[in-house]
Amino acid sequence: MSDLCDFPRLLAGQGVKVTALRLAVLEVLGAAPRALRAQEILEMIRARRRVNKVTVYRILDDFTRRGLLRRLAVEDRASLYELACEHHPPHPHFQCHHCGQVQCLEPAPLERMWAELKGPLGNRADRIDIRVAGVCHKCREMS
Amino acid sequence: MSDLCDFPRLLAGQGVKVTALRLAVLEVLGAAPRALRAQEILEMIRARRRVNKVTVYRILDDFTRRGLLRRLAVEDRASLYELACEHHPPHPHFQCHHCGQVQCLEPAPLERMWAELKGPLGNRADRIDIRVAGVCHKCREMS
DNA sequence: ATTATACTTGCAACTCAGTTGAATCTGCAT
DNA sequence: ATGCAGATTCAACTGAGTTGCAAGTATAAT
Ligand SMILES: [Mn+2]
Ligand SMILES: [Mn+2]
Ligand SMILES: [Zn+2]
Ligand SMILES: [Zn+2]
């Protein structure tokens, strides 16, 4: 998930002011190897500067509504966020029952399934989330 | 989702005492046409008798761990619960962005995909959740 | 019948992730 | 300089779920 995106440009394209905090949120997510909780994003930004959590929540929410980020609903109470730019197309995720860690999977099988699920029942579907759960290799080794 | 299951037998099979409350939880879920929030289950049981929410949460948690129920992580803060008995095999779900309503979809495409996603990266996967999101037909009509 | 034991349910208080509304700050245009 | 809009902050709140422990209830010895 290391990044190729031009964040300032991305924001400008949304007609949104480019601020240090908004950039920080995108940079933290761009540098992360996996989807992050709001809390984690907050802490990573705080390693460099002072921020209020409300601001971060509001930015995450705004970006998600604009389609710059995807919010993943997982088994734990807190959602995860990941970049939704052209370099990070939608893909399934794997969550370990044991450690709770969520990893990103390859998008391949999604494409095939999408066609089948997109139009059922008269709904207009525009998003599909796939979460595969089980026990990850690290946790298997430990036990 | 109306029911064919013998709940007392189901509980007995788990070596779990058959109590009025545990049955009530299963009956409410068995009668529901869709997955329910803990709050909804609580209210439905309260239409008939007195219950403490903690008890219901504990029963839901216990049943989920035993595999009698599935817990669905959705976009809203509260999870949904549905029966996981032989008559209700795992299936994808559709959630409407507008009203938040979650409906159950047919299991068909799941089977095909499962084989592909089950074993990647050395993880032992034992569950796959698919959530399709968009705008449901009711909400489309309204707007 | 009486007591012991295990399990179930209830109560109060708490946690945690987010949310709200109002106040302040900041960059920019007049 | 002054005004304005949008960005950020602060304190207080919400809602879903959790915790520890007390009280109730059923069953199993004695
Ligand atoms: Mn991902
Ligand atoms: Mn379902
Ligand atoms: Zn793990
Ligand atoms: Zn709807």
CATH superfamily caption of the largest domain in chain A: Winged helix-like DNA-binding domain superfamily/Winged helix DNA-binding domain
Give the CATH class of the largest domain in chain A: Mainly Alpha
Largest interface, C-beta within 8 A: A-B, 37 and 37 residues
Major sheet of chain A: order of its strands? 1-3-2
Oligomer: homodimer
Low-confidence stretches of chain A: none
CATH fold name of the largest domain in chain A, please? Arc Repressor Mutant, subunit A
Key descriptive features of the protein:
homodimer; 143 residues; alpha+beta; Arc Repressor Mutant, subunit A; Dna Ligase, domain 1; 2 domains; three-stranded antiparallel beta sheet; 6 strands; globular; binds manganese (II) ion; binds zinc ion; DNA-binding
Structure notes:
Chain A is globular. In chain A, helix 2 (20-31) crosses helix 3 (38-46) and helix 3 (38-46) packs across helix 4 (53-66). In chain A, a hairpin with a 7-residue loop joins strand 2 (69-72) and strand 3. Chain A is of the alpha+beta class and 143 residues long. Chain A has helices spanning 7-13, 20-31, 38-46, 53-66, 108-117, 137-142, and strands spanning 36-37, 69-72, 80-83, 93-96, 102-104, 124-135. Chain A is 41% helix and 20% strand. Chain A folds into two domains: 1-85, Winged helix-like DNA-binding domain superfamily/Winged helix DNA-binding domain (Arc Repressor Mutant, subunit A, Orthogonal Bundle), CATH 1.10.10.10; 89-143, 2-Layer Sandwich (Dna Ligase, domain 1). In chain A, the strands form two sheets. Chain A has a three-stranded antiparallel β-sheet. The longest helix of chain A has 14 residues, at 53-66. The model of chain A has no long low-confidence stretch (mean pLDDT 84). Chains A and B meet through helix 5 and strand 6 of A and helix 5 and strand 6 of B. The structure holds manganese (II) ion (2 copies) and zinc ion (ZN) (2 copies).
